[in-house]
Amino acid sequence: MDFKLTEEHLMIRDAARDFAKTELLPGVIERDEKQEFPKELIKKMGDLGFLGMMASPEYGGGGMDTISYVLAMEELSKIDASASVMVSVNNSLVCWGLDTFGNEEQKKKYLSKLTTGEKLGAFCLSEPEAGSDATSQRTTAIDKGDHYILNGTKNWITNGSSGDYFLVIAQTDKEKKHKGINAFIVEKGWEGFEIGPKEQKLGIRGSDTHSLNFNDVKVPKENRIGEDGFGFKFAMKTLSGGRIGIAAQALGIAAGAYELAKDYSKQRKAFGTEICNHQAIAFKLADMHTQITAARHLVMKAAWDKDQGENYDLSGAMAKLHASKTAMDVTIEAVQVHGGNGYVKEYHVERLMRDAKITQIYEGTSEIQKIVISRSILKD
Ligand code: CAA
After folding, report:
1. Whole-angstrom Cα distance, residue 11 to residue 57?
2. Atom of ligand 1 at shortest distance to CA of 372?
3. CB 316 within 8 Å of CB 302
4. Among residues 23, 74, 75, 363, which one is catalytic?
5. Cβ neighbours of residue 132 under 8 Å, at least 6 residues apart?
6. Distance, CA of 233 to CA of 170 (rounded, Å)
7. Which protein residue's CA is at the shortest distance from atom 21 of ligand 1?
C-alpha cells in the first residue's frame, strides 16, 4: 500500500491551489453576495484544463485519473465551492457521462466543446416530485420517429443558465418504469426550452441554480445517449462517480475552514495567550483534523477504486456520506473558533458553513447514500 502522491498529482494539486488563491479568492465574497459567476472565470477554468480533467484527450480532455480530479476539487473547494460545483457537474456528470456512454458523433459535437470551457454542461434529473425517488420521472419524451418531443420541468439544476448543453433524463415509456427512461442531449436555445428564475440559495450562491421547462422541445433521435431504455442506468452510473467529486468538494470545504480556524487560533489572543494554547480550541482543532483526514482517506479510496476499474458505488457513497458530515461539523466549529469574527463575511468561514450544507443534499442526500451503502453491505 502506498499513500504517497506522484509528482504529477502534486503538480495538479498545486496548480489548483494556486489558481484558487490567485483567481478565485479575490472576488469570492462579492460573487456569493451577488449570486453571480463571471463567464471569464469559467473560461479561465476551461483554459487551465479544470473542466474536462478526466475526459479523453482526443476530445480535448486532460486524460487524467480520478485522484488528480479529487485533488483539484479539494483545492478549489477550500476557497470557492460555487466554482467547484460547476467544475464537478461539468467533469463528473456531463463530460464523464458523454465520454463513457456517448457515441462518436456526440463526443465530437458536444464533448470536445465541454472539455475546453467553450461550452458548459448541466445534468437534469431532479424534478419537483422526483428528487431522491429518481425513477418517478414525470418529464416525458415521446418517440416521433426521427425525433422525440420533450415535455416537463426539471428542478434545482446547477449551471441552469450558464450551461449550454443539458443532459436531460426523461420517461419514454411509463409502463416500463425505470427501463423506460432515456437520457438526451439538449441545447440551450432550442424552441420550447425555457430557463426559470434563479433560485435564491443559502450557500454555493455564486453558482446558478434554476428550474427548466421543456414545452414540446424537438430532440433529434441522434441526441439520445445509449440504447433505448438506458437512461436510468446512465443516470445512476454517472451519479456514482459524481458522488466522489462532491465528496471531494465537501472535503475541501472542511479543509478550507479548518485551515482558516487553525491560522486564526494562532494569532488571536485571549486570557494572555494565543487561543490555540487553550485546550478548548486545541481539542476542536484535533477533532477537525482527525475527521478531515478520515474523509480524505475515504475520498482517495473511492477515486482509486474508480481508477482501478473496481466498483465504486459503495466507496463513493461512503466518501460522500462521511465527507459531507465532516464539512458540516468542521465548518460549524470553525465559526466557533473565530467567535464573533466567524459570523462576519470577511473571515470566510460563515460562507463555508453555508456552502457545506448542500453537500448533504445534492447528488443524493445523506439518506440516499445510506440506502446505497446498506444495500451494498447487506446483499451478500
Ligand atoms: N449503477 C448501475 N445501475 C444502477 C445503479 C448504479 N449505481 N444503481 C441502480 N442501478 C440500476 C439497478 O441495477 C436497477 O436495474 P435493474 O432493474 O436492471 O436491475 C435499476 O437501476 C433500479 O435500481 P433500484 O431498484 O435500486 O432503484 P431505486 O428506485 O430503489 O433507487 C436510488 C435507487 C439509489 C435510491 C436512486 O433512485 C438514487 O440514487 N436516487 C437519488 C438521485 C440523486 O442522486 N439525485 C441527485 C440529482 S443530480 C444533482 O444533484 C446534480 C447537481 O445539480 C449537482
Report:
1. 19
2. 34
3. yes
4. 363
5. 364, 365, 367, 368
6. 12
7. 233
Protein residue whose Cα sits closest to atom 29 of ligand 1: 135
Partners of 193 in the beta sheet? 214
- CA distances (Å), origin 27, targets 24, 38, 49, 253, 281: 6, 10, 21, 17, 30
> Rounded to two decimals, what is the model's pTM?
0.97
- How does strand 269-270 pair with strand 181-187? unpaired
363 is catalytic: yes
Distance CA 142, CA 219 (A): 10
Per-residue pLDDT for the chain (380 aa), expressed as one digit of tens each?
889 999 999 999 999 999 999 999 999 999 999 999 999 999 999 999 999 999 999 999 999 999 999 999 999 999 999 999 999 999 999 999 999 999 999 999 999 999 999 999 999 999 998 989 989 999 999 999 999 999 999 999 999 999 999 999 999 999 999 999 999 999 999 999 999 999 999 999 999 999 999 999 999 999 999 999 999 999 999 999 999 999 999 999 999 999 999 999 999 999 999 999 999 999 999 999 999 999 999 999 999 999 999 999 999 999 999 999 999 999 999 999 999 999 999 999 999 999 999 999 999 999 999 999 999 999 97
- 322-346 b/e (C-beta count within 10 Å ≥ 16 → b): bbbbbbbbbbebbbebbeeebeeee
Residue from 96, 120, 166, 236 to probe ligand 1 pocket by mutation (most atoms less than 8 Å from CB):
236
State in Å: Cα 232 to ligand 1 middle.
7
Pairing state between β 121-124 and 165-171: parallel
In this structure, the residues whose C-beta lies within 6 A of any atom of ligand 1 are 89, 123, 125-126, 132, 134-135, 157-158, 178, 232-233, 236-237, 239-240, 313, 362-364, 368, 371-372
* Strand stretches in the chain, DSSP E: 121-124, 140-143, 147-158, 165-171, 181-187, 193-198, 209-220, 269-270, 273-274
Q: 3-class SS at 187?
A: strand
